[in-house]
Amino acid sequence: MKTTHHLLRLLLLPFFLVALVALVLIYTTQSQLNQQFELTQQAQYADLQVLHNASQFAADLGQIQQRMEQAFSGAQDASLDELQLYRIHSGIANDLHTLGQQVAQLAQSTLVQEANHGSAAGLLREFENYRRFVIMSTDVLAVDPRVASRFWAQAQRHYNDFALFAARIEQRLTDRALQRNAQQSQTHQQLAQRMGAIGLGGLVLALAASYWLARRTSLRMQSIADALVQMVDAPHSQPNLLHIQKLHQQSHGPVQQLAGAVLAFRRALQRQHQAEEQALELLFYDPLTQLPNRRLLRERLQQALTRHAPLALLALDLDGFQHINDSCGHQVGDQVLQAVAQRLRTTTQGCEVLARTGGNSFAVLLTGLGHAATDTAAQAERMAEAMQSALAEPLPLQHTTHYISASIGITLFQAPLGNLDLPLQHAEAAMYQAKTAGRGLVRFFDPDTQARIEARLHLENDLRQAIAGEQLRLFYQLQVDGQGRACGAEVLLRWQHPQRGMVSPGEFIPLAEASDLILPIGLWVLQGACQQLHAWAQQPHLAALSIAVNVSAKQFRQPDFVQQVCQAIATSGAPAQRLKLELTESVVLEEVENTIEKMAQLRALGVRFSMDDFGTGYSSLQYLKRLPLDQLKIEQGFVRDITNDSNDAAIVQTIIAMGRSLGLEVIAEGVETPAQHAFLSTHGCDLFQGYLFAKPQPIDQAERLLQAWHSHHDTKINYSI
Question: Does residue 164 carry a pLDDT above 90?
Fold first, then answer.
């Protein structure tokens, strides 16, 4: 038994020794494998962390890219004001500061230093350049978009350097994955050799398990590497990453993180691609003049139509521009176009859009117009005239002075609009009509509106010439007292047109008020009345007569109106107490305190005031008592039917009674029949004016009539005189 036991021990000793050695080998191999696996896992995790940081960094940069594009778009279409742009600038600056800290940490990693060939300082420098140009771009965006665009272009070049750097990271990571796969395979082979002495079955099992694990890991890593290579080689493509998504969903640990990093990198590339596409879509500007082109004009037109408000489109084409190109060369022609664009840009400030639609063609879209068709047409016409005036200024270029004129076509339209191209087509058609008719003209597309606007424009131009050409005439309509004696006259304006003859005041006075021509005309009438007062003061039988002058609202509201009246009186030498200014109720009751102050200043000089067309407004007795008035003038509409309309008769009696109660003189205008005169006299009216006594007439005829009345001063009123 002992021998058997010894033999058994002897036979079993090698087995135990082999088993012990095998256990030691297994333990050692397992320890080495664990150590190798931990090192590999740490390296993979470190690389994964670097990749994750790089992906997150790329994503953050992509968001900054989008915000920059939005800021540029908002600055160009004026949808963002300066405060909003400053907030965007502050947010981007803060984000770039945070990214700067991240990139500093990223630059210290081994993977980044290897991928960038050890030039971590170069990486930091590139990022600092990118950050600096982005901040400079957003800082000046609200002030000068063109300078901001140049800074943004510089930042884009540094951004591209980051894209190349990311590609090198991905390539480096792919190489590392392949190397580790090879190292793991070699480790497993060594383990298989060491475990061969233990048993073929265990070795085969271990090798099979190792091979299966290695194969599975290798395939996953290969899939990730292939996806990275595909995205790096074709950044604008859309690779199918369903298998990567499955890895991310089904795997755990580093493989899941690595797959997630690949997906995040793909999303960052997609955002970058979208940002680049948006940048391309923002290329809506003409490179020569920096004005919007036809495409952007069409988009702005579509946006304006959504407001359902009246719109106007002006098409402008330079006259004789081809001659400049032929005689001076295209370089000078380009300079002319740039100068024209600058002048139009200055003239059309506040318009919806000014665009260059062709070689020497421009278009202006007007919004915020009046709802009435005449108002819309008038505003569009004024803009066309302003552009023509700006272009008419001499243009010196290369020792040569050029004179530019333009033909302008205008179309008026409003939503709904079936075809967005129709407004520009109509405006260009009207512009060609203007070119056909001659240079430097304006034409409307709508024939009816065109006819009305042309008539109004011609009348306004004629009125401007009438002021300088002494076509305006002063007529005088005499005023009489209750005994039929002349006590004064109202000066009235008439226009003797050289072709049309006498133009009705109802036709040209509203036009003068709308175009501000009433200011020089009103001053001219005031000066003429003062001169006539001075002339009458030299004649004893006319020295007591007064002259009433109508004052428009615009004229009275001028800051220097009091000075104008004082100067007219002083220059002419007229007696101020004989000058009577007629103001309407609307003028008097608007800005009452200012009105009272002006009236008081002139009243101190002796000038008297009459409230014209009294009864047609909404005068307050409280204000009437405060106003330094001398006279109330009954509007002729009440006098016309005074004998057969009880309402008019009651109104006239009330006005006369009100005047007496306030101590004011009352005069009735439009007295045309003896019955009207008798009614007014019976109820206490003081003065009268109308065709019954005298019609408006030139000064020589008025003075002859005055002379005749003076010769018959002891007789009753002779209505036939």
Answer: no
The SS3 assignment for 584 reads strand
**Centroid of chain to Cα 288:** 22
The pLDDT tens digits of the residues spanning 307-318 come to 878 889 999 999
Give CA–CA dist 141/118, Å, rounded.
37
User: Residue 578 gets which letter from DSSP?
Assistant: G
Report the range out of 318-322, 433-437, 473-477 with the highest average pLDDT.
473-477
Question: Residue 76 and residue 283: Cα distance in Å, rounded?
Answer: 11
The band of 695, judged by pLDDT with boundaries at 50, 70 and 90, is: very high
Prediction pTM value: 0.46
- DSSP state at residue 540: T
Q: Give the separation between CA 378 and CA 369, rounded to whole angstroms.
A: 10
DSSP string over 619-653:
--HHHHHHS---EEEE-HHHHHTTTT-HHHHHHHH
Q: Mapped to the 3 state alphabet, what secondary structure does 652-706 carry?
A: HHHHHHHHHHCCCEEEEECCCCHHHHHHHHHCCCCEEECCCCCCCECHHHHHHHH
Q: Which of 574, 565, 535, 529 is nearest to 547 (CA)?
A: 529
- How far is the C-alpha of 372 from the C-alpha of 378, rounded, in Å? 10
Tokens of 505: 């005041």
Give me the pLDDT at residue 324, please: 85
Among 95, 43, 41, 44, which Cα is nearest to 68's? 95
What backbone phi and psi angles, to 5 degrees, belong to 157?
-65, -40
* Cβ contact 197:24 at 8 Å: no
Amino acid identity of residue 476, one-letter, is: Y
> How many residues does the structure list for the chain?
721
Tokens representing 611 are 């409230």
Tell me the DSSP string of 216-233: HHHHHHHHHHHHHHHHHH
Rounded to an integer, what is the distance from CA 327 to the centroid of its chain? 38
Quick check: 1 pLDDT over 50? Answer: no
| Rg of the Cα atoms in the chain | 47
Residues 6+ apart with CB under 8 A from 575: 533, 534, 537, 606
Closest residue by Cα to residue 445 from 376, 391, 514, 388: 376
CA atoms within 13 A on the CB side of 137: 25
Q: State how far the Cα of 62 lies from the Cα of 60, in Å rounded to an integer.
A: 5
How many CB atoms are closer than 10 A to CB 224?
24
Beta strands in 285-441 (DSSP E): 311-318, 353-356, 361-366, 395-397, 400-402, 406-413
Asked whether the beta carbons of 549 and 526 are under 8 A apart, the reply is yes
To which H or E segment does residue 568 belong? helix 561-572
> Which value, to the nearest 10 degrees, does the dihedral of the CA atoms of residues 425, 427, 430, 436 take?
-80
| Structural contact between residues 669 and 690, judged by C-beta atoms closer than 8 angstroms | yes
Is residue 47 within 8 Å of residue 176, measured between CB atoms?
A: yes
Tokens of 209: 């398990």
Taking the C-alpha atoms of residue 133 and residue 159, their distance in angstroms, rounded to an integer, is 11
Query: Three-state SS for 105?
Result: helix
3-class state of residue 310 by DSSP: coil
